[in-house]
Amino acid sequence: MKIVVIGGNAAGMSAASRARRNDPNAEITVYEKDDTVSYGACGLPYFVEGAIPDWQKLIAVPLQDFIEKRNIAVHVLHEVKAINPRKKTLTVYDHPNERTLE
């Protein structure tokens, strides 16, 4: 089974992790348009007010753990531009290489 998660915040990575637990053999891919995954956006107000001095404390699980320990393919700086459910394809913009992929 192939599973794609669009968005690598805490909720997206939680969904990918749950999918891995439910199907150890699934091919799971996450696309995130920014360079950081698994951050708790709900903690941002605490960072802004200074209660959390380092924004990286908002990251629940490091990127490498998803790749190496959970066998989840994570593509940061990749922005999903379109979804074609009939063809089961995505159009993704690869920001580092400045190219569009399907």
UniProtKB/TrEMBL annotation:
Q: Which Pfam families match?
A: Pyr_redox_2
In the UniProt record, the signal sequence range is none
Cofactor or coenzyme needed: FAD
Top-level lineage group? Bacteria
Q: Which InterPro entries match?
A: FAD-bd_OxRdtase, FAD/NAD-bd_sf, FAD/NAD-binding_dom
Stretches assigned to the FAD/NAD(P)-binding domain: 1-93
Keyword list (alphabetical) reads: FAD, Flavoprotein, Oxidoreductase, Redox-active center
As one GO molecular function, the record gives:
oxidoreductase activity
Question: Is Thylakoid included in the keywords of this UniProt record?
Answer: no
Name of the molecule in the record: FAD/NAD(P)-binding domain-containing protein
